[in-house]
Amino acid sequence: MSIGIDKTLEIADRVERFVREVIVPYERDPRRDHHDAPTDELVMEMREKARAAGVLTPHILPDGRHLSQRETAIVLERSGLSPLGPLACNTAAPDEGNMYLLGKVGSPEIKERFLKPLVEGRARSAFFMTEPAAEGGAGSDPSMMLTTCRPDGNHWVINGRKAFITGAAGAKVGIVMAKADEGACMFLVDLPDPAIVIERVPNTIDSSMPGGHATIRIDNLRVPADQMLGQAGEGFKYAQVRLSPARLSHCMRWYGACVRANEIATDYACRRHAFGKALVDHEGVGFMLAENLIDLKQAELMIDWCAGVLDSGDLGTAESSMAKVAVSEALMRIADRCVQVMGGSGVTGDTIVEQVFREVRAFRIYDGPTEVHKWSLAKKVKRDWKAAHGG
Q1: pLDDT (tens digit, 9 = 90+) per residue, 22-77?
Q2: By the 8 A CB rule, do 86 and 76 touch?
Q3: Neighbouring residues of 53: CB distance < 8 A, sequence distance ≥ 6
Q4: How would CATH label the architecture of 126-232?
Q5: CATH placement of domain 236-388
Q6: 168 and 218 in contact (C-beta within 8 Å)?
């Protein structure tokens, strides 16, 4: 639904003030796990402050309706001004995408039991789709799914392994994808569950997401039949409902982070002097900051365009692929230039610039690497050509 630009900007402005004034100081907070991700204690403390400020889950209205994608973009971009902002405001992945999916297709019972605690910011969630590459499981190609589910009375029994499951450690709600004779299925599960075993949480280049990216073993997980999302065989359809908006909301959040990184690099370049003048007055530096402005504007426009397509009711698969490629690559250039402008200071933890660089580098891979999206778009080019020429 649309609430109008004035109301949207009012929400976004409140989110930005909260992130800049309350959350930015938390960037120095030492409460981190051994992967340098924020602990749940830190997350919940920030969320209580967001709740008090009226900016918790700001993209979902009190009656459960979501803002339009264009309005969501304006709000989520502001929440991303700190790597901690999406966690504090409850707009972070994977929860934001999971809330969107359950809000769209969940039954009233599923919404009450699983969606409500997510919207209230009292629980985290995980989306169990990707599987270990070494075993030939599903990654960018979900049709390769090896995790199985079979009916057993009024339950389904799930077995398999999953990999890079963001936030699994510490999550309370899980959405598990598995393959039945009818096709892919999705199930809602309470976490933790003894049948879902975290084998390892590898160290990764990014560190913004609590729980890391775990490798999971699922041993005879029994799920009541009424906890299936929709009908058996509809899992891939629901995955598309989730994935296109989720790709775009990643673009929104990391766009905000790069806006802030560029602010920090610009401040550094204007204050730091070398060879008789401010760094910004040296063309090599000033031109990098000028290029950042160009890339930021192009990313903003791409996000807005793709959001408009989604708002039209189109699944926007091709458009979200285009946005994912264009925005992630533009943000990578921006983050890299910010590090370069700041020199030695840019590779330290003294500012968030170094972290933003790492996070955006990871963003070029998750929710589909750039090359997978280009391959998908190339197939569309061929299909469109054949359709136009009667092939």
Answers
A1: 999 999 999 999 889 999 999 999 999 999 999 999 999 998 889 999 999 999 99
A2: yes
A3: 14, 18, 22
A4: Beta Barrel (2.40)
A5: 1.20.140.10
A6: no
